[in-house]
Automatic annotation (TrEMBL):
This is Uncharacterized protein. The lineage of its organism: Bacteria, Pseudomonadati, Pseudomonadota, Gammaproteobacteria, Enterobacterales.
Length: 210
């Protein structure tokens, strides 16, 4: 993903709860904590710590490439997925102390506020659409550049209850697969809440979930 994003001029993205590329500067710090929390009793201590550090390092590189190159990104976000994200908070497991859980709910709300602010400001290189209906169950991106169009699916989650270990992602340059996912994005984009309308919808969601 990192290599493809670094050479792409356009990105069509659907990730739950939101694309990493559109998160706040504090997101990865909280994600590191979530990954540590999600470790099982069979985890391998220092080796797992190194794996987490390596994952965060790669994600930092992805964010850096995106901020430097500023490709055009069109991101679709499910309203129900964001609702669950706010209720659950940025947690790696559900049995956290109440004070930590409260902090993580605030962290999730911060990300939704960031998303609303982006939608309202409408930067030239970022378009975000909020979908108020069922979204595809798998995350994917269609990445395009001067010499490529490629579709990438990912079973991994970087939101609440993250999963970065178990699953198999796919990468295909097959024109039919790329076109089907592009067509899906176009169809969903037409019915999405965008700009100030979408921002107002997110702020209402935050207000309703006190």
């Amino acid at each position: 993903m990192r290599q493809l994003e670094s050479v792409s001029d356009r990105i069509l993205a659907h990730f739950e709860p939101v694309s990493l590329l559109l998160t706040s500067d504090s997101y990865l710090d909280v994600l590191r904590k979530m990954l540590k929390e999600s470790k099982t009793s069979k985890s391998h201590g220092e080796a797992d710590e190194k794996n987490i550090d390596a994952i965060i390092s790669i994600l930092i590189e992805r964010r850096t490439y995106f901020e430097q190159r500023k490709p055009h990104i069109i991101s679709l976000v499910g309203l129900r997925e964001l609702e669950r994200f706010i209720h659950t908070g940025m947690v790696g497991r559900l049995d956290l102390p109440e004070d930590i859980y409260s902090q993580r709910v605030k962290a999730a709300r911060h990300e939704v506020i960031k998303l609303a602010d982006l939608m309202e400001s409408e930067p030239l290189d970022i378009q975000i659409g909020i979908i108020d209906e069922a979204m595809p169950s798998s995350s994917f991106q269609v990445l395009s550049g001067p010499s490529h169009s490629v579709m990438v699916t990912s079973p991994f989650r970087l939101g609440e209850m993250p999963n970065v270990y178990n699953g198999i992602g796919t990468v295909t340059y097959a024109p039919e697969a790329v076109k089907k996912h592009e067509d899906l994005m176009i169809r969903l984009w037409r019915k999405a809440h965008k700009g100030r309308e979408g921002a107002d919808l997110l702020r209402k969601l935050l207000k309703d979930i006190c």
